[in-house]
Amino acid sequence: MKQNTSMLESTVGSSMALIRLLISFVETTRRVWRHVMRVAALAMEDMLSWMEEGGQVGICDATNSTRSRRNMLMKMAEGKCKIIFVETICNDQDVLERNIRLKVQQSPDYAEQTDFEAGVRDFKERLAYYEKVYEPVDEGSYIKMIDMVSGNGGQLQINNISGYLPGRIVFFLVNCHLTPRPILLTRHGESLDNVRGRIGGDSSLSEVGEVYSRKLASFVEKRLKSERTASIWTSTLQRTILTAQPIIGFPKIQWRALDEINAGVCDGMTYDEVKKNKPEEYESRRKDKLRYRYPRGESYLDVIQRLEPVIIELERQRAPVVVIAHQAVLRSLYAYFADKPLEEVPKIEIPLHTIIEIKM
Ligand code: F6P
């Protein structure tokens, strides 16, 4: 009897211990969950205040995989901005495996993890957790891209999307993909107007510029020799078309959108002449080069806007592209790919006779 009592006591004792353990586990989970929600709310608050300062499109990149989390974001955005949930669904195991390995390689979460395979295992455990709590997006406005990464079809679902900007976002997403390919950016070879220090114009190349065009051709030939589907894009101005001339074996496409910034009434002048003959223009441009618009010409903001179709087309390409263009245009393109702030665009260094390779 005594033996039975002590067996009962020890069973009750271990059950109590188990219950205590479970309670503490539930409490910890709740605490972690509250913390995660708080961090998500902070990120959202940060984005909303950026929008209040004039931001137009913000990306709140997070695993908003539960309804409660998405509802919280929608509530926070009420009356402030429109929310569109973007979900990518991928069923291709090879792509998933590649992405997981890339994530472990690059994410700061694993910067201190010396055992790469342990990092991969840990990341997969995180994914399994998300899979457990995941609730499909079926509220509000959303875009779902299903198996679109490989570029072989796939499906796009859109719900409750209307208006100019949301429409552009859909257009952009349809066209972007992860196929690695290089984009080579270069200014034209030195032009006769470069030698004279004149802005704008449509002059041909100097001798030095011609030498560059031949060097560029042999570089492109070597760099892209295994890439017969690559293409060469120029502006419609002579100096870029002449720079592309020695390159053979690739299709060449001329884009008006790649033409140099239109200097309007200052076209053909040197900077000194502008300073002397149009001091107010010179001063206004010096003060705000990004927004300053040449009379009857363009501003950097105008150039950036007209480059939108070029950018979408570059995003869409699966083969390498060599872009031969001009200083202001390449500053804008480079800023887009290198994620530079708008204010810095007019100051970015894009020297002549230099090739910038962007790995997409
Ligand atoms: O000087 C060459 C040039 O391509 C001009 O044709 C053009 O007006 C200028 O560069 C743009 O650079 P910035 O905006 O610095 O004047």
Automatic annotation (TrEMBL):
<dbReference type="InterPro" id="IPR013079">
    <property type="entry name" value="6Phosfructo_kin"/>
</dbReference>
<dbReference type="GO" id="GO:0004331">
    <property type="term" value="F:fructose-2,6-bisphosphate 2-phosphatase activity"/>
</dbReference>
<dbReference type="Pfam" id="PF01591">
    <property type="entry name" value="6PF2K"/>
</dbReference>
<protein>
    <recommendedName>
        <fullName>6-phosphofructo-2-kinase domain-containing protein</fullName>
    </recommendedName>
</protein>
<dbReference type="InterPro" id="IPR027417">
    <property type="entry name" value="P-loop_NTPase"/>
</dbReference>
<dbReference type="InterPro" id="IPR013078">
    <property type="entry name" value="His_Pase_superF_clade-1"/>
</dbReference>
<feature type="domain" description="6-phosphofructo-2-kinase">
    <location>
        <begin position="35"/>
        <end position="180"/>
    </location>
</feature>
<feature type="binding site">
    <location>
        <position position="239"/>
    </location>
    <ligand>
        <name>substrate</name>
    </ligand>
</feature>
<dbReference type="GO" id="GO:0005829">
    <property type="term" value="C:cytosol"/>
</dbReference>
<dbReference type="GO" id="GO:0005524">
    <property type="term" value="F:ATP binding"/>
</dbReference>
<dbReference type="GO" id="GO:0003873">
    <property type="term" value="F:6-phosphofructo-2-kinase activity"/>
</dbReference>
<dbReference type="InterPro" id="IPR003094">
    <property type="entry name" value="6Pfruct_kin"/>
</dbReference>
<dbReference type="GO" id="GO:0006003">
    <property type="term" value="P:fructose 2,6-bisphosphate metabolic process"/>
</dbReference>
<keyword id="KW-0547">Nucleotide-binding</keyword>
<dbReference type="InterPro" id="IPR029033">
    <property type="entry name" value="His_PPase_superfam"/>
</dbReference>
<dbReference type="InterPro" id="IPR001345">
    <property type="entry name" value="PG/BPGM_mutase_AS"/>
</dbReference>
<dbReference type="Pfam" id="PF00300">
    <property type="entry name" value="His_Phos_1"/>
</dbReference>
<keyword id="KW-0067">ATP-binding</keyword>
<feature type="binding site">
    <location>
        <begin position="187"/>
        <end position="194"/>
    </location>
    <ligand>
        <name>substrate</name>
    </ligand>
</feature>
<dbReference type="GO" id="GO:0006000">
    <property type="term" value="P:fructose metabolic process"/>
</dbReference>
